[in-house]
Amino acid sequence: MWECNCDCGNKTEVIQENLLNGHTKSCGCASSKYTMGERMKTHGMSNTRLYYVWKAMKARCSNPNVEQYPNYGGRGIFVCAEWMSSFDNFKEWALLNGYDSNAEFGKCTIDRINPDGNYEPSNCRWVDMKVQANNKRIKI
């Protein structure tokens, strides 16, 4: 057994094996915060259209099991690190650059200005389906 000082200031005794394998990471304060909701706070937008756009964009560029992957990630199209790692970053960009959560279906879709470029702030915009349909890559 080891006596450990937790980051919160508490002292606790921990079995050596649990320290070595990473099982014990706090005195218990972290799990009590989790159950009290402090660590469960997120962006609160998991059920929104914008969140779905973000998840779908990431999936088609990074998941070979997604049907659209060959046309995106499979040909080298990626999501920038800023967006890939953070929905909040993507949301901030979207809201500052024309995303309309009240737009009718097909009236506010994410589009890459250069269809051969990545999903990144300098290459994306919000357009309707007509504009998007006219912005296709030329297949050879």
Structural summary, described in words:
The chain is α+β, with helices and mostly antiparallel strands. The protein has 2 domains: 2-35, no CATH class; 49-133, no CATH class. The chain is 32% helix and 11% strand. The protein has helices at residues 16-20, 29-35, 49-62, 81-84, 87-96, 129-133; strands spanning 2-5, 11-14, 109-112, 124-127. A two-stranded antiparallel sheet has the order 1-2. A two-stranded antiparallel sheet has the order 3-4. The N and C termini lie far apart (67 Å). The mean pLDDT is 86.
What descriptors fit this protein?
2 domains, single chain, 4 strands, 140 residues, two-stranded antiparallel sheet, alpha+beta, 6 helices
Q: pLDDT below 50 for ≥5 consecutive residues: which ranges? A: none
Gyration radius, in Å: 22 Å
Number of helices: 6
Instruction: Tell me, briefly, the overall form.
Output: elongated
Report how far apart the termini are.
67 Å
Structural class: alpha+beta
**How many DSSP-defined strands?**
4
User: Biggest β-sheet, characterized?
Assistant: 2 strands, antiparallel
Order of helices and strands: EEHHHHHEEH
Q: What do the pLDDT scores average to? A: 86
Helix content: 25-40%
**What portion of residues belong to β-strands?**
5-15%
Query: Strand sequence of the main sheet, in spatial order?
Result: 1-2
Task: Provide the domain count.
Answer: 2
